[in-house]
Amino acid sequence: MKRYEVIVVGAGPSGLSAAIEAAKRGLKVIVFDENEKPGGQLFKQIHKFFGSKKHHAKIRGFKIGENLLEEANYAGVEVALNATVIGLYADKEVVVRRNDQVFHYKGDCIIIATGAAENMVTFPGWTLPGVIGAGAAQTMMNLHGIKPGKKVLMLGSGNVGLVVSFQLLQAGCEVVALVDAAPQIGGYGVHAAKLSRTGVPFYLSHTIAKAHGEDCVTGVTICEVDSQFKLIAGTEKYFDVDTICMAVGLSPMSQLLKMSGCLMEDNPKRGGQVPIIDEFGETSVPGIFAAGDVSGIEEASSAMIEGRMAGVCVAEYLGYCTHEEKNESLAELKKDLESLRQGMFAPANRGKKITKTEEGIEISDSLLKNGFVAEQEIERYPGVVHKSGIHPVIECTQNIPCNPCQDACPKGCISIGENITNLPVVEDENVCINCGMCVASCSGQAIFLVDEDCGDGSATVTIPYEFLPIPEVGEKGFGLGRNGERLCEATVVSVKSVKAFDHTNLLTMRVPKEYAMSARFYAS
């Protein structure tokens, strides 16, 4: 039986982060993962992260994964792939299946970072080929370059459903509708808004009644639901689709922790059955820690910090750092984690109905119900301003932990302040130089550069653009509104694609000046 000081189960964001913190303090660490590649969900995530610089803000998920792997390799972490942990027993004995053989390992400390599994909902036809989870769709698109289908209906309006729907569009799929039984959108408004302006319709208070097809999905019927989530007869709507994608939540994969004798609880706010842990991830069994989604569903940024916390605690538990050194490291990590747990989407606010921002501004009712901020609502927000010349217009309308726009502007035109969840403000006294860094850096694609009056009856609007093919300068098409409807004719006057923008193209279109504050997408 081979012995390690630290055994980590799961080579995702939390597991790798935990292994790095332990290994760089001198511990002998091995990470087991059942997949053929390490990195977990990060390599499926092609979008830019939210948060601050410390949280990897404006960096794409797969790049964060690459950086973690480099850091783990440098720290001397041993990563064993195609290694499925099938048992965690007394005295921290770990049983692993590798290449049809079973091996036994002993750890002085164990960190469980197994993540979570996708939930599914059942309906007539739900077992047909073509009904898949959102994570499966991401795997097909972003890891293997395969389109999940041609015409897709998405069930679920949380961040996963919104993000994957946008990525389906980027992959060349048609998203015919986004459906959710809840009466309002569950994810970030900026994610919903960037989807809505491409023309994807939202059907809230609806669910799937039936998937059609014999050998595979050929269509789907959705139906409105009442306040008890029961189908309302006569409200059926049919769509021709070949794929139904489900993003209906995640459940912690906590079986190993239960097997090891850790005290567990059923906690809906944390995603299901989870271990009872202290604030740094230690379970009721001394020397066994949990980190990431296995201890409660959150974003990957939070999972990485939780992993680092567990790694620091393990180092102190095994005598590789002093109690004072541990507390110093944890204090900084705890501060970073708390900053991510602020705002309207904080874990403490789950299930609460929030009607106003932290600044006292009424939340957009249209955004919650339709996926876009209505014309009569948009100018409530401090980032939406009118100025002469080119200036930023920031359509960020919810308190979420994110501030890369503030750091990106070299002239200080954008301010968020010390509280990372503040709504961004455009500073009147500072002059925009049209560098575009704020547009490219915005993880929610909610910033636009606008010249409201070019002097000839036209205006220019610069938008973030991440679709192929990239329109050519001089091409004529249409400016779309926040709801995806055609507003006006538009001409492409510039497309900027530079390394600093990290694959976010800046497309500038010329539109009639009366549409300067409403044209937010370009379609040929």
Give a written overview of the molecule.
Helix content is 22%, strand content 27%. With 524 residues, the protein is α/β, with parallel strands linked by helices. The protein folds into 3 domains: 2-117 and 250-340, FAD/NAD(P)-binding domain; 120-246, FAD/NAD(P)-binding domain; 377-523, no CATH class. Strands 1, 2, 3, 4, 5, 6 and 19 form a 7-stranded mixed beta sheet that branches. Helix 5 links the parallel strand 10 (174-180) and strand 11. The radius of gyration is 24 Å and the shape is globular.
Report strand %: 25-35%
Q: What class, by secondary structure content?
A: alpha/beta
Helix content: 10-25%
**What Rg is obtained from the alpha carbons, in whole angstroms?**
24 Å
The CATH homologous superfamily of the largest domain is termed: FAD/NAD(P)-binding domain
Number of helices: 12
Contiguous low-pLDDT stretches (5 residues minimum) are: none
Topology (elements, then pairings):
Layout: E1 2-9, H1 13-23, E2 29-32, H2 61-75, E3 78-80, E4 83-89, E5 93-98, E6 101-112, E7 116-118, E8 131-133, H3 134-143, E9 151-155, H4 159-170, E10 174-180, H5 189-196, E11 202-204, E12 206-212, E13 219-224, E14 237-239, E15 243-246, E16 250-252, H6 255-259, E17 264-267, E18 272-275, E19 288-290, H7 300-317, H8 323-340, H9 365-370, H10 375-378, E20 390-394, H11 404-408, E21 414-415, E22 425-426, H12 437-441, E23 447-451, E24 458-465, E25 476-480, E26 486-496, E27 505-512, E28 521-523
Parallel strand pairs: 1-2, 1-6, 2-3, 6-19, 8-15, 9-10, 9-15, 10-11
Antiparallel strand pairs: 4-5, 5-6, 7-16, 12-13, 13-14, 17-18, 20-23, 21-22, 23-24, 24-27, 25-26, 25-28, 26-27
